[in-house]
Write a structure and sequence with these properties.
Radius of gyration: 21 Å
Oligomer: single chain
Number of helices: 6
Strand order of the largest sheet: 1-2-3
Shape: flat
Keywords: Glycoprotein, Hydrolase
Helix content: 25-40%
Mean pLDDT: 71
GO molecular function: acid sphingomyelin phosphodiesterase activity
Length: 238
């Protein structure tokens, strides 16, 4: 078992909670929305506690008019596989079914690099993660770096004058490690940092785009994190 030691370390710490709390952490539709252990307030830094959660009214002179709409290209879940076989099956049940060893249309998720290139009039690009293939049992650091370099170079070659902003997806980690069960509400005070950054931009009258990978309402997102994320976003939403 690859993560045996990590599993038992996490489980020993979770065992201090009652069954309903453990159920809410591990399973969908099982969380108690009143569970105080997942409230971000319990994990705030001293600096974040000073944030006033009443709305701050600022003139929205920075907001774009209808004639100033931004044109944004979002590229997500490309899952580039350099062993992809053209004319493969579009609905790939398993990752290897789109590879050269299988007889399986170009719509396959793990597509050739050339299939994602287009010429568009855009203001900026958002790369929102999961650029790596689905063959997670063969992940290596060098392999991931090679894919990220190739995709970054490709985007630069075609859109060298267009700003590009990136987020990390759940497939970029080596080894795969997506589940923060010990502190799902504010891991490494990341949520506190987001709140402070949004407060800073709010006070300066600026607008922001929050770029991430897995949507907070998705079943793959832990409920403690999702609930606190919504609290922060709704607090600063214009």
């Amino acid at each position: 078992m690859q993560f045996r030691d990590e599993f038992f370390c996490v489980f020993r710490q979770l065992s201090e909670r009652d069954p309903s709390q453990i159920c809410g952490i591990l399973l969908d539709y099982c969380a108690d929305p009143t569970d105080e252990t997942t409230r971000m307030d319990n994990h705030y830094t001293t600096q974040t506690k000073q944030i006033d959660y009443e709305r701050i009214d600022i003139a929205h002179s920075h907001l774009l008019t209808a004639s100033q709409n931004l044109r944004v290209l979002q590229l997500t879940d490309l899952h580039i596989d350099f062993e992809y076989q053209p004319n493969s099956e579009a609905d790939c049940v398993m990752p290897v079914y789109c590879r050269q060893t299988a007889v399986c249309s170009y719509q396959c998720t793990d597509e050739k690099l050339a299939a994602m290139v287009g010429t568009l009039e855009i203001d900026y690009i958002m790369l929102s993660g999961d650029l790596i293939n689905h063959v997670d049992w063969a992940y290596t650091v060098d392999g991931h770096i090679e894919v990220l370099k190739n995709i970054s170079l490709l985007v630069y070659n075609y859109f060298s004058k267009i700003p590009t902003y990136s987020a990390v997806g759940n497939q970029e980690g080596v080894p795969v490690n997506s589940f923060l069960y010990l502190n799902p509400s504010d891991p490494d005070v990341a949520m506190s940092w987001i709140a402070l950054e949004l407060l800073k931009f709010k006070l300066s009258g600026e607008s922001v785009h929050v770029l991430s990978h897995i949507p907070p309402g998705d079943s793959e997102c832990l409920e403690g994190w999702a609930r606190n994320y919504y609290r922060v976003i709704q607090r600063f939403y214009c």
